[in-house]
Design a protein that fits this description.
heterodimer, A: Peroxisomal Thiolase, Chain A, domain 1, 4-stranded mixed β-sheet, B: alpha/beta, 10-stranded mixed β-sheet, two-stranded antiparallel ribbon, 12 strands
Amino acid sequence: MRQAAERALEDAGCTWKDIDALILGKAPDMFEGVVMPELYLSDALGANGKPVLRVHTAGSVGGSTAVVAANYVQSGAFRRVLTVSFEKQSESNATWALSPRMPFVPHVNAGAGGFFAPYMRLYMERYGVPEHIGCLVAVKDRQNALKNPYAHLQIPDISLEMVMQSPMLWEPIRFLESCPSSDGACALVLADEEHASRSPNPPAWILGTSTRADGSMYAGKDNIHPASLIACAKDVYAKAGITDPRRQIDVAELYVPFSWYEPMYLETLGFCGEGEGWKLVESGATALGGDLPINASGGVLSSNPIGASGMLRFGEAALQVRGMAGQHQVEGARLALGHAFGGAHSYYAMWAVSADKP
Amino acid sequence: MREAAVIGYTQSMQRRYAGAANESELIMPVVREVMQSVGVTQKDIDFTCSGSCDYLQGAAFAFVEGLNAVATAPPIRESHVEMDAAWALYEALLKIWSGEADLCLIYGFSKSSPGELRSVLTLQLDPYYHVPLWPDAVSLAALQARAMLDAGSLTERDMAEVVMRSRRAALLNPKAQLAAETSIEALLAEPRFVSPLRRHDCAPITDGASALLVASADTARRLCARPAWIRGIDHRMETGTLGARDLTRSPSTRYAAARAGVAGRPVDTAELHAPFSHQEIILRRELGLSDSVAVNPSGGALAGNVMMAAGLDRIGHVATRIMRGEADCGVAHATSGPCLQQNLVAVLEA
């Protein structure tokens, strides 16, 4: 966390004393066994004497924390804020921590993969999707990860055959179609117009942010095209002036912890019609050389420090429009989307960033 | 910056044990009541923000259950802090200040009864150097009280006076968990619990929930005859290294108070989030409150202490007195972490 924060400060050309407030995000405290860790981490965060807020909105937390940080600057009361998110999954077992035994509720003990797998099977059944589509996403994201030195999983000989032959964990999700358990952190410096204009590296201008949430389970909930994500996308597109996402958005970083989420999200986010997402994947449009690169960084499938995964999506979207994404840079990216997902298809956060000042 | 005001507040009965009621069932009545008090429904709310702690529920994602209590469908704009809900209010204010919302619902909740609160809070400490020693929350507060006694900055009689006043004030608060007419002598005759603290120097363990509505200027005037305007609010953190702090003082409270503009205001009421009697004395001093200010007329956290809501409750009680015309200017304080590590100060006015 300290490493990420110092790199972000250096990138922004400022020091700890320039920071007016700290906004910390992470997923359940049970992953590390530290309750409200902002209290113990205050020294490492350079937070003493400053305002500190700790956000927690399930897996979307990295994204929603960045949204809160943007609100700090938008409010007019803060000039530069530092927002940091992290997870150290090696301290525990996420599947255990996500499968608590609650009073009066049947114990599912499935972890995230077991909970989501039926919805992917539903997607395949509803639209007659061939089985290998998820594997294509898994290969593509791991190939992108090879161009990103920060990515956790580096599998040089990744191939469709390797993914298809990997063990089935929760049908239809195979081992290599799943995200890893990662340790890591992400930090962003958000600044007002005056300070952003003076920053040493090109800024990513935030065109719009949004968060939406709904219940985990209710009659009629569509778990393939969740209402909360539809509402979130509509809001952020309206704020950013996006009317034709497929044409206007140059690159998107979507929170895809299991391969099948890519085609499902492509549809929900309006990049194509319902039932068409898998065709976009199959056509290669979402690859780094395609016309709509998705997760050029390698995505959550290559690195999943849960609390930071959403902010990594937001930060990678910013890196793309800043032209600072290194080997996984999408040429000429001007408008990018960052997206985060949490809970049972119930928490979403998004932002749209641009190379061009609005 | 846009103006904002508290226009409604409700807390549940402060109870030692809420029985089989789950978190959703604690939240639903207070949310419904606060919305009814100003005549709005969920669809009028632009932003909802809550405060809770997974470890108190004993499971990851305590707030997901909370969300089920307020809005299952359609989707809402929502966020959550793993902090006292006073900071959820702060996040909502950011939304109002930035013009992203006009009416926000805040709620905080917890059931501390099923676990061992003292020990759970130990896990807030440095996991490498402090936690292996298992200093619990009461013991750390006792160290703080001892440091003050040794420094001569208070007496045990001063602490008992705080408790006596809290118990007496709570007689007028129908939601309070602990209320009584007692005397300093009777309190000092009680045995020690964790020296130098007696049981009554420590806030009780409480199950419950609270809800509050905050609105931008026009919305506040439309919905409330006498809104409690938030004139200033600020919060500051101190180091998590306990040995590096002077536990007899609270510089973060002093600084936040200066930033919130406490000085020079005609403060007539104050609610201080002091889970231990001696902490109220520290806070009074750092806030520079004169003797004429009524401190904790609700009874304060010593009369009922719902973790993750007790800080919001302080703001809610001050706001309620202003809305009812019983006060004109109040200071509210919330704290987080061991020995007053992080502090929030708000100034509210009619």
